[in-house]
Design goal:
binds s-citryldethia Coenzyme A, about 50% helix, Citrate Synthase, domain 1, Rubrerythrin, domain 2, Cytochrome p450-Terp, domain 2, 3-stranded antiparallel sheet, 4-stranded antiparallel sheet, alpha+beta, 18 helices, about 5% strand
């Protein structure tokens, strides 16, 4: 069996790997905050070995300057800014600019960014007809993914293989603006209502809520939605962002790339959890009898029930976004004069789980999806639209990661290896 010998020196430069009769040194790579990585790019060519790491639990797919997570300590930063400060001080479009450009915008840059989005405010008849062609019972995430990919049909200019930076910026603004309108239009279509056009003079969230409900939203609702979209804006290499990077690495056009990210996000283990949490809380409320039974169901290996909105691949401490959203719940519901019994059930579930050894041993805490639906619901957004809101929030993060991947030095198409364990060679009888 091989042995990996690490030098004792503080600044480790290399790791020595001895495997079978081969000894190689692997460069060690450090991140800004001291994260350590073994650079294994020469591993196969020098030893014939690959690493096997299902679900990439121990594998960094890239380096990135966009978002930093520290799962052990519950830290999240966008371009170095702590999420707590960003959520308190910024609006969603400012955060989008920060993720996309690396710095907060000056007033002039912010206005220019808003005007870039304004340039794409019109939803074409083709797109409107596509929205109307869906059955009203269709899940909005399916519609959003399909319509996003279909936008390629009328944007030939952005289908080129190697878009110059100016066009990547244009298509970024187009997708940010158009997907907001597509989401609002689809909501109106689901409810048999006429479309409400975007009013680009409004703040992004104010415009979206106006397009949804056809009425001017309260300042509290606009603020609440800004905070929610900010908290969802990026989260390093999660499932959907990794999907965007992988699909984008084939030089697929931005519409196909973002559509793939939307599809990955739809899964209930990922962004679809925000819808699943509310459905779970509703089921607990309907069944009555308190939360203890559901905590036991979540712990039982014989029961398929999973406590949705709990647990995380990276956070082994509180998800800082869940902490912010939980605090906001009480504040927002009070300001919106909403009392939601599901919030009390959620808090009871959290309290019960956090004192239960099953959850403590596995470091399972509420994640971003556990409380977010309570606020979406208080804003009047239907549960089937919750993951669409997650997608609108995550869109600037996906686009920033897509651009970072395309402009990385030595950019290559992503193509993992495998270990074949199937049948040996056999002849066709
Ligand atoms: C998001 O990656 C990101 O950054 C994602 C995200 C983002 O912003 O992009 O943060 C958004 O997707 C948040 C996660 C939303 N999903 C859910 O809330 C679904 C419920 N959570 C679980 O399915 C689970 O916790 C995951 C999928 C989130 C994480 O799964 P992992 O990392 O693969 O962990 P695991 O399934 O191997 O769990 C380890 C143990 C297991 O028990 P044992 O086999 O060790 O006995 O913990 C248990 C699991 O059974 N466990 C749970 C549980 N989550 C994990 N048990 C009960 N309820 C849960 N929610």
């Amino acid at each position: 069996m091989g042995a990996l010998k690490l030098h004792e020196r503080k600044e480790l430069q290399v790791a020595e790997l001895t495997v079978a009769d081969t000894r190689i040194t692997l460069p060690i790579f450090y991140g800004t905050e001291g994260e350590k990585a073994l650079d294994i790019s020469k591993l196969r060519s020098e030893t014939g070995f690959v690493t096997l790491d299902p679900a990439y639990m121990n594998t960094a797919s890239c380096t990135s300057e966009i978002t930093y997570l520290d799962g052990e300590n519950g830290i999240l930063r966008y371009r170095g800014y702590p999420i707590e400060q960003v959520a308190e001080k910024a609006c969603f479009l400012e955060v989008s600019y920060l993720l996309l450009h690396g710095e907060l915008p000056t007033a002039v840059q912010f206005e220019a960014f808003r005007s870039e989005l304004r340039d794409h405010a019109t939803i074409s008849p083709f797109c409107q007809n596509m929205i109307r062609s869906f059955p009203t019972h269709a899940h909005p995430m399916g519609a959003l993914a399909a319509i996003t990919a279909a936008l390629s049909a009328e944007n030939a200019a952005y289908l080129a293989q190697d878009l110059p930076q100016s066009q990547r910026q244009e298509v970024t603004a187009q997708l940010m603006q158009q997907l907001k309108s597509v989401a609002a239009y689809f909501y109106r279509h689901m409810n048999g209502l006429t479309f409400v056009e975007s009013n680009p003079r409004l703040d992004y969230c104010e415009d979206f809520l106006t397009m949804l409900f056809g009425a001017c939203p309260t300042a509290e609702a606009v603020r609440a939605l800004n905070v929610l979209l900010i908290l969802h804006a990026d989260h390093e290499q999660n499932c959907s962002t990794s999907t965007v990077r992988l699909v984008g690495s084939s030089k697929a056009n931005p519409y196909a790339t973002i559509s793939a990210g939307i599809s990955a996000l739809w899964g209930p283990l990922h962004g679809g959890a925000n819808q699943a949490v509310i459905e779970m809380l509703e089921a607990i409320r309907k069944e009555g009898g308190g939360v203890k039974k559901f905590i036991e169901k979540a712990k039982s290996k014989k029961d398929a029930f999973v406590l949705m909105g709990f647990g995380h691949r990276v956070y082994k401490n509180f998800d800082p976004r869940a902490v912010i959203i939980k605090k906001a719940c009480d504040d927002v519901l009070e300001k919106l004069h909403v009392h939601d019994p599901l919030l009390d059930i959620a808090k009871a579930l959290e309290a019960e789980a956090l004192q239960d050894s099953y959850f403590i041993e596995r470091k399972l805490y509420p994640n971003v999806d556990f409380y977010s639906g309570i606020i979406y619901k208080a804003l009047g957004i239907p549960v089937t639209m919750f993951t669409v809101l997650f997608a609108l929030g995550r869109l600037p993060g996906w686009l920033a990661q897509w651009q970072e991947m395309l402009t990385a030095s030595g950019m290559k198409i992503g193509r993992p290896r495998q270990i074949y364990v199937g049948s040996g060679k056999r002849d066709w009888k």
